[in-house]
Amino acid sequence: MPDSCVREYRCGTHAPLWLNGSHPRLKDGVVTRQVCGSWNGDCCYFKSFPIQVKACPGNYYVYEFVSPAICTSAYCAEIPQTTVATAPTTATVDLCAKLNCTADEWCGEMDGIYGCFCNETRPRPRTESYDSREQCESSSGTMSLSRCQLFEAGFSADVLHLSDPNCTGTLQNGRLVFHFNNDDHICGTNLTANGTHFIYTNTIQGGADSAGGPIHRKKYLELNFSCIYQISQTLTMDTELNPLESIVRKNLPDGQGMYQVRMIPYQDAGLSRPYNGNVSIVVDQRIYVGVFVQGVDSRQIATVIDSCWATPVNDHRHAVRWDLIVNRCPNPADKTVKVLQNGASTTGLFSFKMFAFNGRHQKVFLHCSVHLCLLQRNNCAARCFPGYQRVRRSVDIHDMASISVGPFIWTS
């Protein structure tokens, strides 16, 4: 019989009875011990009639029970062991051994099912969401829940799954972990767009029934979670050292995604010879610029270059500027600009011929504004018609960012 607090609704009753005192030793003989019943969050809410206990050789005890003081209580026993007879040996099976409850949990029974309960001395954070923790990266997501909070709510780990019933959770250090990715483990994940974000959504779900026979006490759990890509951000390089490759890293709050935007200048259209370090470029020499987005699902997301422009100083808002791409299309005032790829994949590509700003400026800094677009019905690709008039921008814009690179040092 347990000699420490047993929570209510355990041991197959409303108010479980436990021994309020230590067990005797062999030399103590027969002793009298108080009995407490747990209820309403109080370990000793009910004080039942005392009982007698005796320790016996062989490491077991004998109890003289009396009828409980209230009808909705019953005596508790330690976690039982089942003996399975197999000739010529006998094996003992511990019903809690395979649960591997952590130091913050304890094994017990509720409604005939054994599971891990949360320790009374440990806090229960975010009980309304079972202490949910979410992590998003690229086109994948991971959600974990507190196993003991789930069990106390009546949901064991083996009844829960994602939208795809085949995607069940795994137990890791007392937490039930669910994972999906949009490559080979989709698990019923849905990708939607609302004009300003693209959102991966899924649901942790499952049902439980604590009754049997002609009645039921079914309850169902649905926990919706999502990975959202959003937030506008403008970044410009603040140094002139090794400036020819620039990376924008976008770190978003918990539950939101992360991706990178990179812009690299090249000497050739095959993007095999990037410019490295400080270089001098002859005026009228053609430059190829690649804009790459990494960390998103390339099968469903495209990169769209909205605009690109150059400034004589490292400030994308500088008053002196020269436009290269305007509204996804080449600037009609610069016949050297060619948009080679835009809105078809996660890579954008354009080229132009090197120029110099009038005055005493010796450098050229390049800036681009891009956004992500959800590929559907081929509505992401730029369409530049005669006169460089572009069709209306698609509503499937999900994220915008600006990126800068330079300086380019021109020579005559």
Summarize the structure.
This protein has 412 residues and is mainly β.
Structural class: mainly beta
What's the story with the biggest beta sheet? 7 strands, mixed
- Average of pLDDT: 78
H/E element order: EEEEEEEEEEEHEEEEEEEEEEEEEEEEE
CATH homologous superfamily (4th level) name of the largest domain: Zona pellucida, ZP-C domain
Content of β-strand: over 45%
Taken together, the total number of domains comes to 3
CA-based gyration radius:
34 Å
Count of runs of 4 or more consecutive helical residues? 1
- How many beta-strand segments? 28
Question: What ranges have pLDDT less than 50 throughout 5 or more consecutive residues?
Answer: 80-86, 231-247, 250-254, 388-395
Question: What portion of residues is helical?
Answer: under 10%
Shape: elongated
CATH architecture classification name of the largest domain:
Sandwich
CATH fold-level label of the largest domain: Immunoglobulin-like
Alpha carbon gap, first and last residue? 94 Å
Can you offer a commentary on this structure?
With 412 residues, the chain is mostly beta strands. The protein has 3 domains: 78 residues, no CATH class; 147 residues, Zona pellucida, ZP-N domain (Immunoglobulin-like); 179 residues, Immunoglobulin-like, CATH 2.60.40. The chain contains 1 helix and 28 strands. The protein is elongated. The chain starts with 14 loop residues before the first strand and ends with a strand. About 9% of the residues have low confidence.
Highlighted features:
5-stranded mixed β-sheet; Immunoglobulin-like; 1 helix; 412 residues; 7-stranded mixed β-sheet; mainly beta; single chain
